[in-house]
Design a protein that fits this description.
By secondary structure, the protein is of the alpha+beta class. It contains 3 helices and 12 strands.
C-alpha cells in the first residue's frame, strides 16, 4: 500500500512540477532582423550604420511566441559570420551567442547548409529569368535572377537559449536580400571576382525556433506509473491470499 501511495504521489508531483527541474526553454517563436550585409571571401559582415558595428534592427513582421516581447526598432546584436569565428559553410561549428537579443535570448550558430543541388553559376543561361545558382562550389549563398535584378539568400541553423540557461531550442534563420544592386548574375560575379566580395546589400533575416520534446522527465513519470501498476498488482495478490 505504501509503495502504491508513494508512486502515485511521485507521478502527481512530476506532472505538476516536471518543468521546475529544467532550465527555462525558449520554445516556439519567430522574429526578424533587418540591416546591411557585405559578402567577402571570408564570410558575411553584418552591420547597421557602418562596417564593424555588428548590429541590426528588430522588426515586428513577424514576431511571435518566445520573441513577442521584442520591440520594433530596437537595436540588436548580430556578429559577423566569418572564418575568424570558426565559421565554415557545410561543416559543423559553434559560434556561441552569435545573435544577442534585448529580450534576454541568445542564438548560437552551428551550421550553414551548402545546397549542392543548386548548380554553380555559369553557362549561357546564367542570366535567364528564374535561374538559381551559387557563386562557387563551396558557397552557401543562392542567387536568383529576376526581371528586375538579382536577389540572394542564405540559411543559418543553430540553437537559441535564455541567457544563463543550458536548455537549447533549435532555430532556422533565413536571410534574404531582395536586391543586390546588380541587373544580372553575370555582372555580380564579375564584381565579386574583381573586388573579392559583394558590396553591401540590405537584408531581412527571419528566425524560427522549433522546440524538440524533452523525454527525460516524461520517462520519470512513466516509471512512477509503472511503480503504481506494480504496487497495484501486489496489493491485488495480497487481497486474494
Amino acid at each position: 500500500m505504501r509503495l502504491t501511495i508513494s508512486c502515485l504521489a511521485l507521478t502527481t508531483f512530476l506532472l505538476s512540477h516536471g518543468t521546475a527541474f529544467a532550465d527555462p526553454t525558449v520554445g516556439f517563436g519567430v522574429f526578424s532582423l533587418s540591416g546591411t550585409v557585405e559578402g567577402t571571401t571570408t564570410g558575411l559582415d553584418f552591420y547597421l550604420n557602418s562596417i564593424g558595428d555588428e548590429s541590426a534592427i528588430s522588426i515586428l513582421d513577424p514576431s511571435l511566441g518566445a520573441f513577442a516581447s521584442l520591440v520594433a526598432g530596437t537595436k540588436e546584436t548580430i556578429q559577423d559570420l566569418t572564418a575568424a569565428h570558426g565559421v565554415l559553410p557545410g561543416s559543423s561549428f559553434t559560434f556561441a551567442n552569435w545573435v544577442q537579443l534585448t529580450d534576454g535570448i541568445d542564438l548560437t550558430a552551428e551550421y550553414i547548409p551548402v545546397d549542392v543541388g543548386i548548380a554553380v553559376c555559369g553557362g549561357a543561361g546564367v542570366d535567364t529569368d528564374g535561374n538559381q545558382c551559387r557563386p562557387n562550389a563551396t558557397s552557401p549563398i543562392i542567387l536568383t535572377q529576376g526581371l528586375n535584378g538579382v536577389s540572394a539568400r542564405v540559411e543559418v541553423d543553430g540553437f537559441a537559449n535564455y541567457v544563463g540557461s543550458t536548455s537549447d531550442t533549435p532555430f532556422v534563420g533565413l536571410f534574404n536580400a531582395p536586391s543586390t544592386q546588380y541587373a544580372t548574375i553575370s555582372s555580380l560575379l564579375v564584381a565579386y571576382q574583381a573586388n573579392g566580395g559583394i558590396p553591401d546589400v540590405a537584408y531581412t533575416g527571419t528566425f524560427t525556433t522549433i522546440p524538440v520534446p524533452e523525454p527525460s522527465w516524461l520517462a520519470l513519470v512513466g516509471l512512477g506509473l509503472l511503480g503504481f501498476g506494480v504496487g497495484g498488482k501486489k496489493r491485488a495478490k495480497t487481497g486474494r491470499a
